[in-house]
Specification:
The complex is a heterodimer of chains A (268) and B (439). Chain A has 268 residues and is an all-alpha fold. In chain A, 78% of the residues lie in helices and 0% in strands. Chain A has one domain. The longest helix of chain A has 34 residues, at 125-158. The relative contact order of chain B is 0.10. The longest helix of chain B is centred in the last third of the chain and has 67 residues, at 310-376. Classes of the chains: A mainly alpha (268), B alpha/beta (439).
Chain lengths: 268, 439
């Protein structure tokens, strides 16, 4: 049943993504509302599906790659629905949903299960994974906002308005969106990673292990930390912040990729 | 007089008039009327009985008579002859410029005009209000009946729908508004954004005014002639600053509107780094309205600086116009759907008077026959009376059913007129005043 619900949710996301892309071509108010409604409905199904799996397995649905990706999607869609309202940037779906889809469609391709060794799930390991995943989801939005910023900035610099000029929000809005998603996502990410370190000390007696997931996680964390501190000092707004967000997201993808492809302590 | 006779059974909704499509300004400007003249015309047309309902729309781009009449051509001639007479324009000049639409075509025209699809500048918002004014005036003069009321009310609904569901009025089509729109794409809201206005060009003044209407604040004005700067600053509720000081202000302001007659650029690329140093990374937006240009074009290459000259703004306006055209096509499709929907209603409205007078006629017959029968039955019990009433009612309803259904169906199919005439003929239904109109 939870698998069926997940499929329903994923189908809703797919249709919503296509409709969102279509709505970019000339703002169709009804289409935009349809996307909004469909995304919301899909998200509700998704929530129920996750909850049912939690009840069924008696543990948080965070311990296989499939579950992890599912949670990232779930959180990303939640962030999207929030940000669309907060920033009146209703085209956000056209940028977030495709990312969500690529992640979602990887699920059934039967990627290697990342079940942790039986000895591991001590009471609060799920907090390490869960917090990191929710943070990652906010960073998906951070990336989407940065992408939109770069496109809009390019349009304005080129001085010849095209479709994007009309469809995308103002630079200022996009800059705020990028910043806000970073300030929301980064604490989650940090808390998640910090718990991981504490837990590693207790389980393995060491602060650091040279496995790929740890390495990429650290690189990613450093990039986001730099972006954030750069902004706080006051000079890294706009284009520079946007490019850093793109760089951060690339390492995020590497991090996810590393956890899939490379054997390491996290994976075995 | 029964309500059926308020309107002849074969009257037609029509619009007749001239607009910027058909008539030169020289004629339009003479026929545009003030309100009291319009009142006279409405009263006269309705009083003479050439129209059952009438409203007159008079703007600088169009003069149109909307009405319901048995013979639209007659109403059109009477209306425009009188309009022309007020201003000494002979009918021979007006006549060739006139167009007339009837029924669904008239509805389509009304919907398109109200939704600003027929405007000189497609999507301009004033026309909807002007149609509303015409409607309110006609209502005040008592010349609006059920058909015009339904048509115009629906026209306003359609106009609103067009405005909310399409982007027909969304983008700026003047240079000064395009500049404001660009500023909003960069800064989001303009509240609290500082503007520096250099020079005194008219278009620049307009842009500055639009920006302060949107909340841009403070507004500095610099001009080589200090007195001119003072005047402008007062007018725009801004602050005059000495012209020599403007370069220092660059680090403080967000938007610079340059509109001077200087023969060569007064803002140079070399000036910008200093202006950017003190401002963090808030963007800086130059609107260069000077010809020759006041700002070196290369400032646009600097990070966080945007510079649009007159040609760039024109390109934005052209793009906006194309966007409007695209949206206008969607609006046309929407209007077509609404016209089809309304035509059904209009046809129903069309046959209502015939149905009512048919019903009245049969009811009168029935009543007369029942009275006659009862006169012959002085001792009839209440039950008998009730039975007689019921029996006669049932027969009348059965007889009416066929013709009414036929009328509705044929009217919706577009040939209601023939059936209305046939039924009027068959049942001997009278027209208003009992006389045939002269054709």
């Amino acid at each position: 049943m939870n698998a069926v619900l997940f499929d329903v949710a994923l189908t809703a996301y797919i249709v919503a993504a296509v409709a969102a892309a279509a709505s970019l071509r000339g703002r169709r108010e009804r289409l935009v509302s349809f996307v909004d409604w469909l995304t919301g409905a899909g998200w509700v199904c998704h929530t129920v599906s996750l909850a049912m799996r939690w009840v069924e397995t008696g543990r948080a649905p965070l311990f296989t790659l499939a579950e992890a990706v599912s949670v990232v999607i779930w959180a990303a869609v939640a962030w999207q629905l929030w940000a669309e309202r907060r920033y009146r940037a209703r085209v956000l779906g056209a940028f977030v949903l495709p990312v969500v889809l690529v992640l979602g469609l990887l699920l059934p391709t039967g990627l290697r299960s990342m079940a942790l060794p039986a000895s591991l799930p001590s009471g609060w390991i799920w907090a390490h994974v869960g917090l990191a995943l929710v943070g990652l989801a906010a960073l998906v939005l951070n990336f989407a906002g940065a992408l939109m910023y770069l496109i809009q900035e390019r349009q304005l610099k080129a001085r010849r308005p095209g479709t994007w000029y009309y469809q995308l929000p103002s630079l200022e809005t996009l800059d705020r969106l990028t910043f806000r998603t970073l300030t929301v996502g980064f604490p989650f990410l940090t808390a998640g990673l910090a718990l991981g370190v504490i837990w590693a000390v207790r389980a393995w007696g060491t602060v650091w292990t040279w496995d790929p997931l740890s390495i990429f996680s650290l690189v990613m964390w450093v990039i986001y930390a730099l972006t954030l501190s750069g902004r706080a000092v006051g000079h890294w707004h706009g284009r520079r912040a946007a490019w850093l967000a793109v760089a951060g997201f690339c390492t995020l993808l590497f991090t996810l990729g590393a956890s899939v492809l490379v054997q390491g302590r996290h994976g075995s | 007089m029964s309500p059926a006779e308020d309107r002849p059974p074969t009257s037609t909704l029509f619009v007749s008039g001239l607009s910027h499509h058909s008539a030169p300004l020289a004629v339009r400007e003479r026929l545009a009327m003030e309100e009291d003249k319009l009142r006279e015309i409405l009263a006269d047309l309705a009083g003479r009985g050439v129209v059952a309902e009438v409203a007159v729309l008079s703007t600088c781009n169009r003069v149109e008579i909307y009405g319901v009449a048995e013979v639209p051509a007659e109403a059109r001639a009477a209306g425009f002859r009188q309009l022309g007479a007020y201003r000494g324009v002979p009918m021979s000049v007006i006549e060739p410029l006139l167009y007339t639409f009837t029924d669904a075509e008239a509805v389509r025209h009304l919907f398109r005009v109200t939704a600003s699809l027929d405007s000189m500048l497609v999507g301009e918002p004033q026309i909807t209000g002007q149609v509303k004014d015409a409607f309110v005036l006609a209502q005040a003069c008592g010349t609006v009946g059920s058909v015009l009321h339904a048509a115009m009310t629906q026209a306003f609904n359609v106009a609103k729908k067009v405005r909310t569901e399409t982007g027909i009025g969304r983008h700026a089509v003047s240079l000064s508004h395009a500049a404001v729109e660009l500023a909003r794409k960069i800064f989001g809201a303009l509240e609290g954004k500082a503007v520096l206005f250099l020079g005194a060009g008219e278009m620049g003044e307009l842009a500055a005014r639009h920006m302060s209407e949107q909340g841009a604040l403070p507004l500095y004005v610099a001009n080589r002639t200090a007195a001119r700067a003072e005047d402008l600053a007062r007018e725009l509720h801004g602050t005059a600053v000495p012209f020599e000081r403007f370069a220092r202000l660059l680090s403080e302001v967000d938007i610079v509107i340059a509109s001077t007659a200087a023969p060569e650029p007064i803002v140079r690329v070399a000036d910008i780094p200093a202006a950017l140093a003190g401002r963090g990374t808030r963007p800086l937006f130059f609107i260069d309205l000077g010809v020759p240009r006041n700002v070196e074009a290369r400032v646009n290459d600097l990070d966080g600086v945007f510079c649009y000259d007159v040609d760039d703004l024109r390109a934005v306006v052209e793009s906006n116009l194309r966007e409007r055209q695209r949206e206008a096509q969607r609006a046309e499709a929407l209007v077509a759907r609404e016209v089809a929907r309304f035509s059904v209603r209009l046809h129903d409205l069309d046959v209502v008077p015939t149905i009512v007078s048919l019903r009245d006629k049969l009811e009168a017959m029935r009543q007369a026959e029942v009275d006659k029968a009862l006169a012959r039955l002085p001792d009839a019990s209440p039950e008998t009376r009730r039975a007689l009433e019921g029996l006669s009612q049932a027969i009348v309803n059965k007889v009416l059913h066929g013709p009414i259904v036929k009328l509705r169906d044929s009217s919706r199919a577009g040939h209601g007129r023939r059936w209305m005439e046939t039924i009027s003929e068959l049942f001997g239904l009278s027209r208003r005043g009992g006389t045939e109109p002269d054709r």
